[in-house]
Fold each of these.
Amino acid sequence: MTTLDDLPLRDDLRGMSPYGAPQLDVPVRLNTNENSYPVPDAVVEAIGKALQAELRDLNRYPDRDAVALRAELADYLGHGLTGDRVWAANGSNEVQQQLLQAFGGPGRTALGFTPAYSMHPLLALGTGTAWVDGRRDASFGLTADEAVAQVEAHRPDLVLLCSPNNPTGTALDPAVIEAVLATAPGMVVVDEAYAEFARPGTPSALTVLPGHPRLVVTRTMSKAFGFAGGRLGYLAADPAVIDAVQLVRLPYHLSALTQAAARAALAHRAALLATVDAIKAQRDRIVTTLRERGHTVADSDANFVLYRVGGDQKATWRALLDRGVLVRDVGLPGWLRVTAGTPEETDAFLRAMEDVGRDPE
Ligand code: PMP
């Protein structure tokens, strides 16, 4: 049998395994920060109609520039944005890959502040961009001074910030973003996949866009919109940044079906985004309950919560799975991450955690 070792694979990919959380068939799946609520019937119907209307024309390539969709995404974002300042692709992962292809690549460097979204270093690897693992403090905080010192030390071509940060859940102080922008010699990308879940008083980096052509804010319909299966991510930036990603995007990367489904979903955004408040309520309930039980819990502006289990998080992860609850071991010793889902899922998670208990620190 031929194995990977027999193929002339790139040296830097040898010995690696594909990224991905376990997709296990268990009653309570709280491990990938999906939106637990299914698409409402009225929206299912609207998306169905929109897809149907495309089918006869599937002999033709789709609108390569996704002009209508981008204008509608700009309208959703507000902040005076227009379609020429927005770009869309198959998930914000693809958007970020395009940014690294355009602004990173061989001989260039990207800096992120670990722990953050674990795909960022992998996207750097895939695009041949050198990755620098920046540091956070012991409680996962990042001050403007610390961030600036690391940007000055490494002079990266791209800085990747994640706010609210995955896996910690906490949004960045906007002062950090502004300080990094003032110092960074290259592009500054703020990954705002969870922006819609932020606690009040957490401004989006979109507010900083005017006058900052090297700032890019990435968003997704995978979380708040409950549209992860639709694969639609997007960015907002100066029109010149959109010119840059168009140099590396594949022609017709967004299928006619994806564009039509996303537009129908956006047209029904009130119904889809109606789940956000319910999810935030469960998020806050998880934070409060775990703290009452003595766990250390990171502040969350997202649809998930990072909490300390003490001892060996792998054992707690397994014990929760044995009770039908799948959470995420993000590889931080002593910590686990749980997605906030429906009230029933939160009940099941909190019950299982009570059962499993907390190891003494
Ligand atoms: N950024 C962050 C911080 C994420 O957590 C995720 C999803 N796990 C993504 C981006 C990618 O999401 P998508 O490709 O579905 O838009």
Amino acid sequence: MEPITVETKPIQGQKPGTSGLRKKTRVFKESHFLENYVQSIFDGIGGIEGKTLVLGGDGRHFNDRAAQVILRMAAANGARRVIVGQEALLSTPAASHLIRKRGTDGGLILSASHNPGGPDADFGLKYNTPNGGPAPESVTDKIYAATQGLTRYRILEAQDVDLTSPGLQHLGDMEIEVVDPVADYAMLMEEIFDFDAIRGLLSDGFRLRFDAMHAVTGPYAVEILENRLGAASGSVVNATPSPDFGGGHPDPNPIWARDLVAAMMSDDAPDFGAASDGDGDRNMIMGRGVYVTPSDSLALLAAHAHLAPAYKDGLKGVARSMPTSGAVDRVARSKGIDCYETPTGWKFFGNLLDAGRATLCGEESAGTGSDHVREKDGLWAVLLWLNILAATRKSVAELLREHWTEHGRNYYSRHDYEDVESDKANALIDGLRGKLSQLPGQSFAGLTVEGADEFSYDDPVDGSRASAQGLRISFTGGERVVFRLSGTGTAGATLRVYLEALEIDPDKLAEDPQEALAPVIAAADEIAGIRAQTGRDAPDVIT
Ligand code: VG1
Ligand code: CO
């Protein structure tokens, strides 16, 4: 087993996006593509000689093959040890926890997260730093620079490593420690939440349905919700991870998790419903007959987090991505704690969490998390909800109604236009950027623009600046629209239009969001010319 050095040439387009590098699976399978990127990660972080890394993924097609390649490359590059999830599986939050718990030099996560999987779908790879979080731009810039000058990679010529059972083995001089992917994570959840209270709730007849969407959270949810908390067997559905997520789209929103929505809206609906995404870091929350928007979920969790043991002393602060609604800001104000507004992507929360400035973070895209790891965490959010439901013994609908009555309701929706030709999408954004300064004072569809700018973020901890993070337009009545292009897609461009309107009139808190937002939707189209410029009559996905 000798390490060999393979000559290669830089491959274009290996620039990490919002969350790692995502490409069509077939692109990842092209000759040298994966190897070049892995070597660039190793080079970009200053080499891995003597280092320990965590490795695992969401089990999508090519996960197993890519893991074997990475192990051989890690060995050839002189790593001391790789801690790998059994069958190369680890949910993203479990990987983050393992990196932190074992004090490793970071980890590699094989996932394209909420993107579909399979030979004709998507694959991805992400490097997380020793704090357990996605690499910040200072690191991904170095990785990208390495991809552009790469001339060789190192790999061991060896047989596949057997990852089927836990234990220690060797690959060349490198140690490989195969671990149960669920055990450490489940233990962490027991430390954070009041499992006895949740067990009590469930034994009193409270019913739940968790849809793992054929993705990586299945084994985690079965162990925690059914085995440890006593939810009825079968409460976790679609619990076996499959390489193409059962042919579905592992994105927990009302469109892609429509089976869960149907179950929760039926006459025999359980009390609580939830779903998570491909790699287990997102969550969707429902009660009987109600869907909770991610922005409302974040606000409600912030308001009640002190009911869970880990947060009993209150929150140091909260943070949300810029396009996320201002609902959590209102909770922060009433609690007298700081609220930070960051660019889209979990990597921007890392410094705030490390510095102890924020305890809870969230994004409108169904990501919620806390300082227990450095990734968003789907099952954690589900357990925090269950802890709150157990402590209050109120229904999801009741909690939501009370929340809106106290804080007002930020009606919210996101309209996605997918697979738009890139030049059309860029032209729309460029055109809008060019006229932002003229918008204030003008009226569109009956709404008057108050302010308009392009969001940039100065990190209060390390002073780094991220610019061009979305165009935002606010109106005099408290409404807002944000435009940005997705950084996780693998075909064309996805235009995201984020719509929000604050309502504090107690008589208007129960409207249909699309109706409540109709004026904002009309103003957004009038300002940006979405239909005219994209040729689309309607969004592809409304969440
Ligand atoms: C999307 C979401 C963003 C999220 C990111 C990764 O990014 O909008 O909030 O952090 O996906 O989530 P974009 O650039 O496509 O808007 V995951 O669960 O796919 O890692
Ligand atoms: Co994800």
